[in-house]
Write a structure and sequence with these properties.
Order of helices and strands: HHHHHHEHHEHHEEEEHH
Distance between the termini: 54 Å
Strand content: 5-15%
Length: 276
Amino acid sequence: MAEAGVDAQETPQVRFGQELRRSRRAKRWSQAETASRLGYSGAHISYVENGRRSPTRSLAVKADEVFGTGQRFYELWRRFSRAALLEGFAEFADAEARCRRLRTVGLIIVPGLFQTPAYARALAQAAVRRGAITSAEADERTDYLALRQEILHQKNPPALHAVIEEGVLLRPIGGPQVMAEQLQHLEDLAERPNVTVQIAPFSIGENLSFTLPVVLLNLPDHTVVGYAESTARGHLERSRAAVAGWESDYDQLLVEALPKAASQAMIRRARKEFQA
């Protein structure tokens, strides 16, 4: 298959394609032979090499295996994934990966680290249907979330605390089965010694101290940063005064939220409603 010229713009997607072409030529493999070794079609490999199709995590991992390149393609894929994120989110994700304590407020949807793959896919596919992102970008979002969630499986994972508004438990993201699985997952996570999940019931009314989802991160150097986002961008807040205000609001929310056992009971009741 003929190879079109690569756009000179050095985007992460283009760099991935250039590295794939360079590695293939170094092996003296044709696109068809490379495609066969990687488990893709020749057309797919051509599109990726020319920067016309987004690389996926699975392709990156397979390319590192086939070419013996360690994690070179995987790291290029990570750069691409981060470039496609909401402005400011990559900086937050770096801090999240290093944090020793994470506190989060979930107002509309289950916070990312607590989402199941099916729940995350339902959200991403809804964005595709709205025309907000492409199908490839939806795949990258879910792949990148899985990468972030590896923090849950570390030998010494951070302490996680989530306050989730009651409406999140009732909003049928992905349909009854997806929601039942998601709520079971919340129950299971809350059983871990490093994880606490509390529900902010409707009855707290105007005492719900946040109008936007926020995250507070305690970093290894003992600093605390906050993260919030709008529909346009995310912002990592480092101002000690601003973060202290968020921490105060979070502490007030803990007073209003249900205790852990009562929260688990509410999650369980919601799950049973979706299973009915």
